[in-house]
Write the structure tokens for this entry.
Amino acid sequence: MTADIKAKSEMLNFETLPLDHILKSRGWMYNFLAKYFYKEPDFKALEKLMENNLFQTLKELGEDHEGIKILADFIHKSPKLSDEEKLSIKRQYETLFYGPGHLPAPPWESVYRSDERIILDEHTLAVREFYRKWGVKLSEEDKQPDDHIGLELEFISILNKRTIEALEESDIEKAKEILNGQKTFLEKHLLIWIDEFCGMLKDNVNIDLYKGMALFTPYYLKMDRHILEELITQIDEFQK
């Protein structure tokens, strides 16, 4: 799996595909995942995604990953969801991530990295410190512990946006620093627990939105790590 993911990331032609396009595509993906892991679905926003459905674009380009196909089709069908289907999706979100009661796939990093399976431990504090180091303040709406999956993905999205801004200002060194920050956060946090979290999620879903996200998220984060490596290498070559 890892070799296949690395190969697919290397299929991106970094010499001809505009860097701006790569970074904006990353932003689209991280914004989508952060939003729909953190809050119950906004169906009007889902319908708007049809105008720029990156999952559909990947599917049409021949990407055969099951999660991509499921999410592409779900977004495409979202305008036709019945009120009953929308209610089922909202209930699934509450069951998975909000409660009350036992959560089948707790969305906090600390649960997967502590022997006691608890939240708000040293892993949460380490994530908070990472945010502080980069001067990032995340969503205050329905405030969750800092290591919530949605907030960690939002953090990457924010740094990705800063990378774009640095490049627009021709600050190559700053852009490389921010890319390295994203890579470090993936390696020290998200990639450590994403497989277990999404595995538990996949085993407890019957809604395509969350099934697709459970399948796609680990795949994408692993591929994105290689994309970041390639981008950093390209900048290093440019600076020589």
Remarks:
- The domain at 2-239 is CATH 1.10.3480.10 (TorD-like).
- The chain has eleven helices and no strands.
